[in-house]
Specification:
Elements: H1 8-33, H2 37-64, H3 72-104, H4 110-167, H5 173-189, H6 191-211, E1 217-218, H7 219-237, E2 241-247, E3 255-256, H8 262-271, E4 280-288, E5 292-300, H9 313-326, E6 331-337, E7 340-348
Helix pairs in contact: 1-2, 1-4, 2-3, 2-4, 3-4, 4-9, 5-6, 6-7
């Protein structure tokens, strides 16, 4: 769409910007020809209005002849030919208008006045054409930059979304294999416990698959998901694993990114509880402060135990997810003190960006 036609305001601005050009052309004609201001206005006002229409139409010439395409000589030659042709047609039409004035006004001075104004009109036409192409190519360049920026932002958004999907926690094969290996002996030894294990595992898997493609989940659902995960691990670790949930009333209905707790709790089991001879307690708390929902997870660990390969990968992915979701409004803090590893996840309750 033509930049002058995008809104009524743009058309008014274009008219206002053109008015000084028309006014000073009339003043120059009056000064050079010695005609009165009314005569110069009658003679030149309609041609100048026509020139405004020509200036507007040059937009389409510029769009059809992009500056970046072709060599510079072709570009200059094409515009020079177009400019000469347009100005010649415009002066011809203006000359016809002066002839009409001679017919309707008996003084018969209009043709002579117009002849004296041809150099001025030619200069004005050249100036208008050059100014028009300068403005329009700047507008076209600005539009190309805007489109390019929009495309870059769109690609960044798509990349961010793709990264988000890749960063969402997936079920580690070793957890699934370990769980399945527990089922077979339990069926023989304790069918009831095997049934309980299968129930927790199936709920865990269903939630993981369903919420891996969702945009958000509720705190209560995340807590239930982690409870199923820890219940399955409890079958494997036995008395080594203890669990404690302290969920503040009023936090369960808050929306959070899906599968946000699993990488932290997996880290607690893999690098904490399972590495300790006596095991330990995994604590999960939720509470609110003035601006955030805070999810707190802690577990004991042994500093001197050799670190397993991949330690911290899940937490790093979680931090990236939080950055993509909340653009600095949320975050993840970790702390090691007295052989207790603590993680705090901050979710903006209000005023933060909407989860996409």
């Amino acid at each position: 769409m033509h930049p002058a036609f995008r809104s009524g305001k743009d058309m008014i601005i274009a008219g206002l910007l053109w008015s000084p050009v028309a006014f000073w052309t009339i003043i120059l004609h009056r000064t050079l020809s010695g005609a009165s201001f009314p005569d110069s206005t009658i003679l030149l006002a309609p041609p100048m209005i026509l020139l405004l229409g020509i200036a507007i139409s040059v937009w389409y010439i510029c769009k059809g002849l992009p500056f970046e395409k072709g060599d510079i000589l072709y570009f200059i030659t094409r515009h020079s030919f177009t400019m000469i042709l347009i100005i010649a047609v415009w002066i011809g039409i203006s000359s016809g208008y002066s002839s009409l004035l001679n017919e309707y006004f008996p003084a018969g001075k209009w043709k002579e006045l117009f002849s004296s104004s041809i150099p001025l009109l030619s200069g004005t036409g050249i100036f208008t054409y050059l100014l028009s192409i300068l403005i329009y190519y700047l507008v076209l360049a600005s539009e190309r930059i805007r489109i390019a920026e929009k495309e870059v932002l769109q690609k960044q958004l798509e990349a961010s979304r793709s990264e988000l999907e890749a960063l969402k926690t997936t079920i580690h094969p070793h957890f699934l294999f370990n769980s399945l290996n527990l089922i077979s002996p339990l069926i023989k030894q304790s069918p009831d416990r095997a049934s309980e294990l299968i129930s927790h595992l199936s709920e865990f898997l269903i939630y993981s698959f369903e919420h891996s493609i969702k945009k958000s989940s509720l705190v209560r659902d995340e807590i239930e998901h982690i409870n199923n995960y820890l219940s399955v691990e409890k079958f494997r670790l036995g008395d080594k694993l203890e669990m404690a949930f302290e969920i503040e009333e009023g936090t369960t209905g808050i929306q959070v990114p899906p599968l946000i707790l699993l990488p932290v709790v997996e880290n607690s089991i893999k690098h904490g509880i399972s590495q300790l001879i006596e095991g330990g307690l995994v604590t999960i708390k939720t509470f609110r402060n003035e601006e955030h929902l805070v999810i707190f997870i802690s577990n004991p660990y042994e500093e001197n135990i050799k670190k397993l390969r991949g330690r911290g990968h899940g937490l790093n992915n979680l931090k990236k997810r939080m950055t993509l979701y909340y653009k600095g409004e949320g975050g993840v803090l970790t702390e090691k003190k007295d052989n207790i590893f603590k993680v705090r996840i901050f979710i903006p309750i209000s005023g933060g960006p909407e989860i996409e």
